[in-house]
Design brief:
Chain A is an alpha/beta fold. Chain A has 13 helices and 10 strands. In chain A, strand 2 and strand 3 form a beta hairpin. The N and C termini of chain A lie far apart (47 Å). The chains are: A alpha/beta, B mainly alpha.
Chain lengths: 402, 497
Amino acid sequence: MLTRRQFIANAVIGTATLLVWPKLTFAATGSDTRFLFVLLRGGLDGLESVPPYGDPGYQAIRGALALSPSAAKPAHKLDNVFALHPSFDYAAQLYAQGQFMPVVAAAPPYWGRSHFQAQNCVENGTAQPDGAQTGWLNRCIACMPGVNGLACAAVMPLTMRGSAKVETWSPPLPTEVNPILLQRLQPLYAADTRLAAPFARAVAQQTDSPVPESSAGMMSNGKPGKKKQSGLPVMMAAAGGFMGKADGPRVAFVEDDGWDTHANEAAIVTRKIEELDAGLKAFHQSIGAMWGRTVVIVATEFGRTAHINGTGGTDHGTGGSMFLAGGALRGGHVAGKWPGIGSGELYQDRDVHATTDFRAVFKGVLAAHLGISDSLLESRVFPGSAAAEPLGNLVGPARAAA
Amino acid sequence: MNASGNDATAAVNRFGLGAKPGELAGIHDPRGWLNAQVARGSDGGNAFAGLPGSLDYLREEAQLQMTRRELKQGGRGRRAFLSGDMQAASQDGQANAGALKQALKPYRQETRKALLAEAAARYRVATVTDTPFVERLVHFWSNHFAVSVDKRPARLFAAPMEREAIRPHVTGRFADMLLAVETHPAMLLYLDNARSVGPNSMLGRRIAMRLARNGDMDKGKAGGLNENLGREAMELHTVGVNAGYTQADVTEFSRALTGWSVPYPRDFANGKQPQSAFVFRANAHELGSRRVIGRTFPDGGFEQGKAILEFLARQPATAKHLSMQLAQHFVSDHPPQSLVDRMAKSYLDHDTDLAAVYRTLIESPEAWDAEARKFKTPQDFVISSLRAGQVELGNQPQPVLALLENLGEPMFDPRSPAGFTDNSANWIDADGLWKRVQAAEAISARVAQTNAQPLAFAQDILGPLLDEDTAQAIRRAESARQAHATLFACPAFQWRA
């Protein structure tokens, strides 16, 4: 007798097990590199994640929140000015191997301090919150014939919206679907012009999954009050699992939220950076040997006020930190021009002045790592960004697996 | 009534929460049906009776904190420590840690019980209500004024805020709803205003002096301006981000809001009983006049911030912002400008009266356009399934909460003060559709199987939206349960058409 699973396999879709990722046909093209973009929503504080402990103004402006390599809980020293937050244990190891690099005083071209407008700019790749209805990463994928993208999110993020083919993935519900029900639904959905294509993909995706057992176990039915099943470590592990395959997606997106630290910042940032650090480690482990051909960019919509506010936190600011990682990265140093945080150096006497436009970093990686031509970068992926010249020397020759 | 058959389905799906059995057939005048609901106002008085108020929740939290403090600091252990009896101190410390755990346990259980009771009441009302248009509006405004329970201090208060600040005003003046929300502990805690202190207020100066004594290391521990609520109240709640206000406006408004707070644990100490869940702390309020969007507001304590809220509520930019959001919610992702303009005019002509805006929406031909439709959000999908199947959750809302979370719209947990997206394009994707099929099966398992006529059931729920192919699929279902699952999972059921 057939099990229900086998029944589906035979009668409906052709192969294997249910409820999981896609055996999509990710055609390998050209040099087979990988790129992951991680968006931290809420506004990560640059002065906490990459404390400029060597800046003479830092201790005074940060008071109780100040971090330093010589503190009781030491920050990871990077050079004579900068350190990494104490929770960045794994990132610090990568840094020592030249596989991690912070960019300081970076921001999208929009400096208006609204979460949603700033996120729109980070995602649509323009200087205007409504400057494009599609995402820069989707437009990038559209420049790479035969390449598909992956968004590890329940809902398609703006970054990945557009004409290029991108799949979403999120931890599945635990129940199986009755194959007969599925059979009946297929012709109905085929007749709905708007839902036909996504439903067909949903059915096609019910094949084999690279998600590790340990995280699959966390995906049992979510109950309120339980720990979230979709934290950065789970999502980044999943992304690495897909991307590590020879025919896996070359370009992927992961997002996280909860970085908006208006109050009691020290505890929140410590926990959130632990998650990001664990996410990097999980991604490295699950992508395996492909790590050597991979670059990761981690960005947030803005930095925060240099001064602490009245509730042990910081308010919306401008310049912040971004991070690059990966085996293909030429890291091991701090990038970006540091504007200082002494008197007269702050933007509007309040925020770290932004000296690097995000798009300069994005363009540098897309050009060197994914082989997008300068003319496509200017005309299609980041129109109107000529002033943000691509950062050079970000990517090295592919490394063997660590 | 064939001529209005499609209008009746629009009334039930586009404006309501999806049909419950018999509802569609009973609508003979779709516009009148909606207008009568607006006249009735918010439902659910009885369903929510017996739930604690915000003040009760604040008191429970205060008691917990006091217990915790006593066990941590007080008791014999501390005296033993001071007298040098280290062994007794250590033993007592361990006993206290155990006692603390014991003290926290019932509190955690109570909290969980309260949250489940709130959820049970909310989805029970949505499942059975006879005023589904108003209930949809309640959910709309709750999401407009989103409070995300992933922020620990706000966790207990999002559901009470919907009952205490949204429901009473859902068909009243927006200005009143705005004031009720911005003075509610949920919003004051979620957007950090409860501890925002004017730098030149009495409290602010005392803190500054203490800082000067203790040096910089105390910086940021307490006392100072926090502009989170001021900014989001302008950007999200009222005029909208493109209204042309500046950072200075945000800062000025935030100063006016200093002192808007909640009772602290110490306000409950020694038998004291605060009478309100909102406290205006005059000693934390920044004195002086404030200038916001070109208008000067004289010093006046609490009245100053209240006057600014009233001013913001009456701005044409607010009228446009709210009308656009309502039109996007009810009609389409890209509603006709003519409709938005007409609603905005009603809003301003009627002193921010929302009932007038709803009536304008109902009477506008654009709202009934056959092409206008919205894809159900996960919550829409779940609620309309519960209504169609009249699923009895009792006191066990957990399966519904788990579904909402898995489908991507966990209750009161949008992770952002902007709330969940209301754009259909954001909810349509392969993964989400697949999960709906799974959810449809899960919900169908809870529908009472008394209905032996699956096709009649589907006709009752979908009316003219039931096409021949879907009817065929339902007719072929091998069980009532499968028929229900097919109905909930079919494409026609995914649209608020």
